Amino acid sequence: xxxxxxxxxxxxxxxxxRLDLTTPTLLGLxxxxxxxxxxxxxxxxxxxxxxxxxxxxxxxxxxxQAWHAFLHSSVYLSLFWKSVKMSLIVSATIVLLAYPLxxxxxxxxxxxxxxxxxxxxxxxxxxxxxxxxxxxxxxxxQGALNSFLVWTGLRSPDHPISQLLYSRFAVMLVLAYxxxxxxALPIFVSLESLDRRLLEAASDLGATRLQAFRRVTLPxxxxxxxxxxxxxxxxxxxxxxxxxxxxxxxxxxxxNQIVDLFGTGFPDWETGSVLAIFxxxxxxxxxxxxxxxxxxxxxxxx
Amino acid sequence: MEESLxxxxxxxxxxxxxxxxxxxxxxxxxLGTAEAAQAAQLAESGRLQVLDxxxxxxxxxxxxxxxxxxxxxxxxPQFTYMTNESDALAKIHAGLKPDLFRPYVxxxxxxxxxxxxxxxxxxxxPNFKHxxxxxxxxxxxxxxxYGIPDDWGFDAILYRGDKVHPRAKSWGLLFDExxxxxxxxxxxxxxxxxxxLYLGMPRPWRQSDAELKxxxxxxxxxxxxxxxxxxxxxxxxxxFGSGDLWIAYAWPNDWVQMKKKKLKVVYMRPKEKPIAxxxxxxxxxxxxxxxxxxxxxxxxxxxxxxxWLEDNYGYGHANVLARPSSSDLLRALQLTNxxxxxxxxxxxxxxxPRRAVYARMWEEVKAS
Lengths: 302, 368
Prior knowledge:
The complex is a heterodimer of chains A (302) and B (368). With 302 residues, chain A is mostly helical. In chain A, 73% of the residues lie in helices and 0% in strands.
């Protein structure tokens, strides 16, 4: 028997031991974190939605009443649909805006691309709240935009464009501004990792630049596009800070309703929990559906 | 540093108190009630936890509790802010443990029967005898003093006199089609009460299902006119001050603040009558600092605090000795009228027996 053969049971044991302890050690803490601060709170919220827990001192127990009321409420479902539409518009618009930007940064080959990328994410260095509030200064009746229009003579001081602030438009504009870097980054990463030889091959095979983009670049960057879309769509669907600051009556979103049910309105944690769990469910389904588009893709020449 | 100092002092206090409490028991008869109360106050440690409205804490309201801070430098109040009573209720349910908080008169019965609060002992507050007897009575439930009245004022309509020309002095100005996009409502179920008042319902706080539905449909129909449904006064001031709004549901302080911005504003008393409110300090059940809470409310109840509140915020004060410097304000608030907050001058806000139903309907108005 060789030395190597004699040593192998011990090294196998060491390997097993290492495997046995390393994996739980590395995964244990994040899993425990996830369980305590994500799964347990969700379970508690779910329990409120079924009236298993209640803030009312009276008798309570498992019931589907709040779920039934929610699913038969045209008001809440309409509000949800309104928020879906707003988030879709914001997400789609900024994906369209960010794509050329990311394309230029990733494929132009300029040496300054990382400097430009840094400039793109520079707004992250200031607080979220400050970035939202800055738009009030821009969009208000006496804000920068209206002042400019008055200065140029395009509007009279008595008739500024008053629908800029406290409107659905204001919410979507500010959300687009806030989330633009989140969209540009995943697209940039997917484009930068593109194998340039594929573009050369396409060119060698007679493809025009537009054809190469349509048949090679775009399909291969789709995972980045879907990831970017999800990065924006999911958080904006439950957004409540921006609408409460610049949204006014017409910019009120589903997330605001959840907050109000838990706090500002007479506390109705049961209905608030139903709305929150429903949102979570929709986001979960969307993530599963979109996950298949996040896989790396292949392109083939016809 | 400050925290550790405070903890150290608190331990010292505890040691003192062990002796003081024993001494107080032995000597109570000879020292009298005041000394015993003082000794008991010493037994309470830590910072007084106050759940109050913005503007009433360290964000500008310091003058109204300065006497307390002077008397209890080691137990300075620590504030958490509430946007309304529902918000306070949610925070308490979520685990916040204030010693005292300030709902308004319409919530006295709700909180008194909720098991969350305990009655005050007026004997521990020397300034209590100067408080408006009508308001004091409004703070009682089943003969016990659950609420100590302090600030009071009105819910009415603020509008730009240079831009708005009301057809009548009425709550209807909040629903006037001519001013679409220039109107602000308040984020509270009270909007259903206001709709009820405007629509001529006999008991707006106790609307039947049909009446409530009618009020709700009316508000949903008119919601397109409202640009903002405000819950924070600073939000209102900013939008009103910048000209984004011309008409708003507002409180007297909002009128004072807009006047300070040199805007031509009018604070209208609608013909359907304004809704009057009285702030009621309430003591949380199980508070570890009840004596300090009494001392804090006593400071708030002084003539000096009352005058400061009236001069600076434009609210009335329950201390009948307090008078503002401005005679305009005296007239506007009817401070010489001991019953300015009730009929025939105004509707005093009151208990809404079906508060949860009202709240759900109001939430639906916002969501619609």
